[in-house]
Design goal:
Elements lengths: L5 E2 L4 H8 L6 H14 L3 E2 L4 H10 L10 H18 L2 E3 L2 H15 L10 E3 L11 H16 L5 H18 L7 H24 L6 E3 L4 E3 L1 H11 L4 H6 L1
Parallel strand pairs: 1-2
Antiparallel strand pairs: 3-4, 5-6
Helix pairs in contact: 1-2, 3-6, 5-9, 7-8, 8-9
Length: 241
């Protein structure tokens, strides 16, 4: 009986450690095990879009901010290493996956995960990073510079953090999740709920742009709802969601 292929999500931290480690180290042994499983066809390691974004952001500058050709070559080779693991496959974006799971839950009452819901063949998982290196770095650097100057909603975070903190103390139990992470999750979930309520009332969604300095990105809440419309969510399903 053929074993079912497993899916493994590798982030930048894992890829970086596996690429540059000693073969006898824990990371080295993990790298060997993953490469072996991928070659046997029992494991898939699709590339997340975030990996490409983070990689081009590193460009040809080292940790001190100075141009370093050796550092640059190392980043390019590291991306090549991941390309070989990914074998041309990439994860769908979060909004696409979330929309698929929401529709499945609404229509079937449960989520029956299948691989085609999560990853597909994609050009960015095959691209030679050196071809877009400098342009990607300039884009990413300007975007980061702009975002550092944006208000971070500190007051909003404090308002939500305080009751969470009080609740934890009152129940006198240890939390395994960082408080800040809980706060961010609650904030984001609240935004999606508000977006779905607004969508239910209006029956349509207008995808707003978010100014990111030199470009404009899609507002994630609107993008998720737009994905739902592409999957033909109806009024009854909008009410249930």
């Amino acid at each position: 009986m053929r074993k079912e292929r497993k899916i493994l999500y590798l982030d930048q931290f894992a890829v970086s450690n596996m690429y540059s480690t000693d073969p006898a180290s824990a990371w080295g042994k993990l790298r060997h095990a993953i490469q072996e499983k991928v070659s046997k066809g029992v494991l898939s390691c699709p590339m997340p879009l975030e990996h490409l974004y983070e990689t081009v952001g590193r460009s040809n500058k080292d940790k001190t901010g100075n141009q370093n050709d050796e550092y640059s070559r190392n980043i390019i080779e590291q991306h090549k290493f991941f390309r070989e693991l990914a074998n041309g496959t990439a994860f769908y974006g979060y909004e696409e996956i979330a929309a698929t799971e929401i529709i499945m839950l609404l229509r079937q009452g449960k989520i029956n995960p299948i691989k085609s819901m999560y990853f597909h063949k994609a050009l960015y998982a095959q691209i030679d990073i050196s071809a877009i290196y400098e342009k990607g770095h300039t884009f990413n650097e300007e975007n980061h510079k702009y975002n550092r100057n944006l208000p971070q909603g500190v007051n909003e975070l404090r308002e939500i953090t305080q009751p969470l903190n009080n609740d934890i103390r009152a129940k006198q139990k240890k939390s395994t999740d960082p408080l800040f992470l809980k706060t961010l999750v609650r904030l984001q979930v609240a935004r999606y709920i508000d977006g779905l309520k607004d969508f239910y009332k209006k029956g349509f969604v207008k995808v707003r742009g978010v100014n990111c300095g030199t470009f404009e990105g899609a507002y994630k809440v609107d993008l998720l709802i737009y994905k739902l419309t592409k999957k033909r969510i109806n009024k009854r399903e909008r009410q249930k969601s």
